[in-house]
Amino acid sequence: MSGPGLPPLDLGQARLSVQEPQVRYDKQGERSDAERLAAANATFARDFGRTAALYMESCIHCGNCAEACHFYLSTGDPKYTPIWKLEPFKRAYQREAGPFAWAYRTLNLKPAVTVAQLEQWQELVYDSCTMCGRCTMACPMGIDIAGLVGLARHALFAAGLVPHELWAVAERASREGSPLGATPKVLKDRLEWLADDHEIEIRVDAPEADVLATFSSIEIMKYPESLVATARILNHTGHSWSVSTRGYEATNFGMMSGNVAWQRASTMKLIDAAIACKAKIVLLPECGHAYTALRWQGAAMLGRPLPFRVLHISEFLAENIASGRLRVGKIGRTAAFHDPCQISRRGGATRAPRFVLEALGLELRETADAGDLAFCCGGGGGVIANRRADALRYKAFEIKMHQIDATGAEIRLTSCANCRQTFDDGAAHFHWDKEMGSLLELVADNLLEPGTDLSPCPRGEEELTAAASY
Ligand code: SF4
Ligand code: SF4
User: Fold this and answer.
1) Whether residue 130 has its Cβ less than 6 Å from ligand 1
2) What percent of the chain has pLDDT over 90?
């Protein structure tokens, strides 16, 4: 793999020329440097298990990960080499926990990490990593750099060294239950208004339900049509379902900021709500990291296997179309699909959205590197919350924008509201005349009533064009 217009990276040479990051960093609290360092080291020691240690020992410095990372490819700056983002943590491991730790300490082969270095590294761990895992796919040693960046964030959070905006939304989510102010009352009011406005039944706080529907705050506050679409689809399938004001917010800024206690609290709200209504399925919204937080990390938060299935909405759509519970009309246009990293590459649900697109009669025009190797939009992992990262994020977004343009597709779709928001923001920045739509909303707009002849599509051409003009 090589980047657009860039020579292959010589990691050995890159390390010599690497300048440590020099951007603004933020601090929380009034602690001394020694206290911050102690907190980071304690967290680091706690989280650094055998697997992480093995990863640290395995790097052969081949540089493949650099050529997979959109931040390196779009800038050519060696400091964005993925494994370099972990350098202070590698140094801490070698001095404190590695097999030759005594030698590193006694001979001072690896100087101790300082608070100044952690401050400097804040940019690499938070601003220039979306935890997309593309580097992990490229690494011949299988080193999960994205996962290690997640651990590095735990240490930086413990030290009070988190970008301010990300810290603020995470703190708000822990206090109010939502990073964007979608409190239970706001949600309830909004659902009532949407139900009236769209003449649709939306069940809230049902004592029992087979499916517990959840949302992301981006949907609740920015894309409320997604809430309506979810209700339409669930009503269409005939499942018993409900929203719960006890647990509805699927985003997890505790996870993205690096605060495990906040992460657990957010996850447990969903789990408790699901158990309370005896849900068999927790339906996750169009949100990538929500899937990682509950599908892959939820059982660890609960301390035992989850007593329900966790499905991303694209998986739910595919399952219900396949079983005949959901019937959709054919659209007959060309479409490009943006794979959300946490759903496709990290989540493994790469085929589900493609099955849905096929059922909708869309001709899929894949981008280069589609599916498991798709490039990130640049706004995941909390990066979009961090204003100082905007310039870098736009550079990474350009890769995606050019790839989408190259497909020549008439419509563009994704299944993550955070990606959609990143596309909206990138399009406004570049005056790009393309809009990113929601797979969920497109399905809801093209549902067929029971008994409808499947072919030809019963909707008028004009109505179809409106529904598909994302
Ligand atoms: S996880 Fe993604 S953003 Fe982070 S270093 Fe790897 S490729 Fe780059
Ligand atoms: S691809 Fe893997 S082995 Fe190669 S430099 Fe990156 S982390 Fe090290």
Assistant:
1) yes
2) 78
Cα-based distances in Å from 378 to 311, 341, 418: 24, 10, 10
Question: Would you say 246 and 276 are in contact if contact means Cβ atoms under 8 Å apart?
Answer: yes
Q: What's the pLDDT at 452?
A: 63
In this structure, which ligand is nearest to the CA of 61? 2
Cβ neighbors of 295 (< 8 A, separation 6 or more) are 284, 310, 312, 347
- For helices 33-47 and 115-122, the axis angle rounded to 10 degrees is 70
CB of 375 closer than 6 angstroms to any ligand 1 atom: no
Comparing CA positions, the residue from 215, 186, 194 lying closest to residue 273 is 215
Q: Which residue's alpha carbon is at the smallest distance from atom 2 of ligand 1?
A: 132
Q: Does ligand 1 lie within 6 Å of residue 134's CB atom?
A: yes
Cα–Cα distance, 163 to 70 (Å, whole number)? 21
Q: 342 in ligand 1 pocket by Cβ < 6 Å? A: no
Give the Å distance between the CA of 54 and the centre of ligand 2. 13
Q: What is the pLDDT of residues 320-371, one digit of tens each?
A: 999 999 999 999 999 999 999 999 999 999 999 999 999 999 999 999 999 9
Structure-block tokens of residue 234: 């669930």
Domains of the chain: 33-162 (1.10.1060), 173-319 (1.20.1050), 322-468 (3.40.50)
Measured in Å, residue 332 CA sits from the centre of ligand 1 at 36
In three-state secondary structure terms, 362 is coil
pLDDT in tens, 36-95: 999 998 888 788 777 888 888 899 999 999 999 999 999 999 999 999 999 888 888 877
> Diameter of the chain by CA atoms?
79
- In what helix (H) or strand (E) does residue 243 lie, and over which residues does it extend? strand 241-243
370 with 344: CB under 8 angstroms? no
Using left for φ > 0, alpha for ψ between -120 and 50, and beta otherwise, residue 227 falls in alpha
Q: Given the CA of residue 130, which atom of ligand 1 is nearest to it? A: 3
- Which residues lie with the beta carbon below 6 Å from any ligand 2 atom? 11, 59-65, 83, 138-141, 143, 145
pLDDT band at residue 97 using 50, 70 and 90 as cut-offs: confident
CA distance 228 to 199: 10
Q: How far is the CA of 374 from the centre of ligand 1 (A)?
A: 12
- Among 145, 344, 373, say which to mutate for ligand 1: greatest number of ligand atoms within 8 Å of CB: 145
Parallel, antiparallel, or unpaired for β 309-312 and 334-338? unpaired
Q: Using a pLDDT cut of 70, give the percent of the chain over it.
A: 91
User: Does residue 262 surpass a pLDDT of 80?
Assistant: yes
User: Of the residues 2, 139, 148, which should be mutated to test ligand 2's pocket, given the most ligand atoms within 8 Å of the CB?
Assistant: 139
